Amino acid sequence: MQRAGFSFLICPDPEIIRERVERLLADAGQPFAREVFWGDEELGAPFWSALTVASLFAGRRAVVVRRAEALPPEFWPKLASALKGFNDSVWPFFCLEGPFDRKGGPKLPKGLAEQPYFKVAEKRKWVFVSPGLTRRDMGPRLADWAARRGLVLGPGVAEALAAALPGQLAHADNELAKLELSLGHRTSLELADLSLLSHHEGMDGFAFLDALAGGREPTLVWREIFDKELAGEEMIFPFLGLLLYEARMMWRLAVGEADDVRLPSQVRQKKEAMARRLGAAGLTRIFEAAFAAEAGIKTGARKPDQAMEFLTAELYRLFGGPMRVPGRVSP
């Protein structure tokens, strides 16, 4: 493989950057010793020596600059001479780990974009850009994780797991490792096993139901979920999956088939109380409302925000709210 002369990795998730560096080095097919520097510390003589001085005996080295977004603007012009030409002995990596801008695009440090070497990197595709771990990425990652470990994901597990995992790759991997350890000799992961996951703020199906059950203004509830927690239309289906997961769990609690459901006592009590309040008929209506929302989006009959509004209206009525929901649309 023809490796890059130098690489820019732009992503707010440091674990994704680490994973990308490892993959690039592995694909090169040659051993590289790693030397790591930090952009929020002064880069002195050892950095410039590592970047420019070749050694007949030290072998190839990857010079990795973490948090490079913290480097001062005057640093980037100084880099031009070091990156001029291809150095077979040195592979520089500049890791820009700051948050993306409000429009979802990468924020480049002042003075970098106009540098000739950065324009070369863009032209030759030596720049890796990722917004971090998105819900769209979760499905393929989970499929790969399960396949490598010989695990079978039960009905609804992939969707619920994709919705419940935290958005930082390292934290998500920790949660998956916890689940894997809990299985012991079992090779099938079921919805009940997901109760071991640490609470993840946002994407909380039960909190959504509990807010409606408590009489909160339904328009505010669905808008809060859609704007703040779903953070994009690709989150709708994972959220519906997590909502169905909560409904299935409450169904098991209602019929006394949840001996293996492991929940903190206070959380279990709240879910049991809601399960009793709704009964079989009410829980069935949750299933129907979620399936109707999903079908409406997939058939094009409703836009995602409309589907979310109709879903909230139906569930609000389920908990005894008035027939008409204040807001732009009523069912």
TrEMBL record:
Q: Work out whether the entry's keyword set contains Ribonucleoprotein.
A: no
For this record, an example GO cellular component is:
DNA polymerase III complex
Keywords, A to Z, come to: DNA replication, DNA-directed DNA polymerase, Nucleotidyltransferase, Transferase
InterPro entries xref list:
DNA_polIII_delta (IPR005790), P-loop_NTPase (IPR027417)
Q: Which domain of life is it from?
A: Bacteria
**Biological process annotations from GO:** DNA-templated DNA replication
Q: Name one GO molecular function term.
A: DNA binding
Q: What's this protein's name?
A: DNA polymerase III subunit delta
> What organism, scientifically named, is this protein from?
Solidesulfovibrio aerotolerans
